[in-house]
Design a protein that fits this description.
Number of helices: 5
Radius of gyration: 15 Å
Oligomer: single chain
CATH architecture: 2-Layer Sandwich
Order of helices and strands: EEEHEHEHEHH
Strand content: 15-25%
Number of domains: 1
């Protein structure tokens, strides 16, 4: 599932001193149906080193989607071929990807919203592989860098683009 082919023209730009530095921070974002009847739609994890995981569920219930999700999130799905799958396959793909993340640097899963973390935990159906830590980065992102990322690349409210934007906003 580590596929640098996702980057293409949309690769988020890291400062030169951050690339290849053996960093261990990974930024997560999710999209979901609604705040009241919350069901995972998509999940992305972006590492400072450029490694990425992205997957979309094909078996979420569209009837649970808020008007906002119908108007903004759903039209952005399907951008990455082969990344849509049922929940169980997404779980297995995520677990396989996480196991292959180098643990020698103590990877940190960074989240900015508790619901993202809760949906991640639900999808995992168990604990993170050994060696992982969690960090809430709410309030730590550089707002100007976040806005600059979206101004250049667009894609706000798409899990992969939002995770890339968070990585970029924390890298500066």
């Amino acid at each position: 599932m580590t596929d640098t082919g996702f980057h293409g023209a949309l690769r988020w730009p890291l400062p030169a001193d951050a690339e290849g530095g053996g960093t261990s921070r990974y930024y997560i974002d999710t999209e979901f149906t609604d705040f009241r009847q919350c069901q995972l739609i998509s999940l992305a994890i972006v590492g400072e080193n450029g490694d990425e995981f992205y997957g979309e569920r094909t078996d979420f219930d569209p009837a649970l989607c808020s008007d906002f999700v119908r108007a903004v999130v759903l039209p952005q799905l399907g951008q990455f071929e082969g990344r849509a799958m049922p929940f169980v396959a997404l779980r297995e793909a995520l677990r396989a990807w996480l196991v292959n993340v180098p643990h020698d640097t103590g990877p940190v899963l960074c989240y900015d919203y508790e619901t993202d973390l809760n949906l991640f935990r639900f999808l995992m159906g168990g604990p993170l592989p050994g060696g992982w830590r969690l960090e809430n980065i709410a309030g730590q992102r550089d707002r100007a860098r976040l806005a600059a990322y979206y101004a250049r690349h667009g894609g706000e409210h798409h899990a992969l683009h939002d995770a890339r934007a968070n990585a970029y906003a924390c890298a500066g």
